[in-house]
Amino acid sequence: MSMFQNRYAWLLIGGLVFLSACYYDKEDLLYGAALPCTDSTGTISYTAKVVPILQTNCYGCHSGGTPSGGIAMGNYTADKALVTNGKLIGTITHTSGFSPMPKGGTKLSACNIAVVQKWVTAGAPNN
Questions:
Q1: 111 lies in a domain?
Q2: Residue 79 burial by CB count (10 A; 0-12/13-18/19+): exposed, middle or buried?
Q3: Exposed (0-12), middle (13-18) or buried (19+): which is 57, by Cβ within 10 Å?
Q4: Is residue 103, in this structure, part of any structural domain at all?
Q5: Global pTM value
Q6: What value does the mean pLDDT take over residues 7-22?
């Protein structure tokens, strides 16, 4: 092996060692720690907290004259019926035996699910 090839080999090895040493996997430092879910603390208001979540994720398909799947939402009476039969929590938590919703979309955030679950646990009041 010539002197040039020897230097090139050492330079290549040194470069690989240098590049592999740059791996940094401290996710919380890179992206920040996940913020706690403050929306699920205290009393959950149907009008102020639950309806906005349902409007964003459910009402677009499940309201109007021909709601998707025949599941109507969009007012307290209809939403409460889904609480009573267990479909609301089953679908948003993607529980086995329920059709995961929103269909074709991503699962609701853990915070949004916690808000809806706390409202349901409180008896799903019309507040």
A1: yes
A2: buried
A3: buried
A4: yes
A5: 0.72
A6: 67
